[in-house]
Amino acid sequence: MTFSENESREIQELFGALPQQLDPDEFKIKLRELRAKYHPDQFEKFGNETVKQMATERFQHIEQLAEKLESFFKMPAAQRSAKPGPSAQPYRDPRARFSGHDLKIELRTDDKDLKYHIFGTFYRWLQLGDTFNVPETKARITADEEHLGRKIGFVETIRFYLSFEEDDSIDTIVHWLFERIDGRADTLLIESEMVPIEFDEVLIAIKRRTFRHLTAGPA
Fold this sequence. Notes:
single chain, about 220 residues, Alpha-Beta Plaits, 2 domains, six-stranded antiparallel sheet, two-stranded antiparallel ribbon, 7 helices, about 20% strand
């Protein structure tokens, strides 16, 4: 079992140590604290559905990491301390090829114009199923819901699906997305996993989920 760089960093931040250095007993104590802190019931008092939804997704993500750690602790000690080889992260191999179909992306923002700039609708109401082609690629995004316009001073979630083929450049796609959301969205979720809004983090997160195969030839 291996952990991605993003997962290892999150585990260190949440539990105080990297997976290979984490003591199982200390993990259990910290997990109880995190469950108490992030349980959605703790956020009922705010009366805000967006806050509650974010807490719920955070809680679920912690549970997913905890489940993976629990499986990790059941492995023999020699395997837990072993470092993954290059094949553990094939998406980093220059021979790697990627394609994606309806990769779910969610953004939380208080910028009322962001959805229009992403979809290029020029302030036309955004309809469920609307598509936009990413420039210089054959990639497209598809709206997951309608946006009928709102006032300033709100927080909303923009949901859409990203699809692209093997001959599309992921770097080009991520550059296009990152330029639009950097400094304008406060939360990014890719397939329900929270991803830091940093170019390399977004690139790796998309590659991990869309890796298909390695081409023939030298690495």
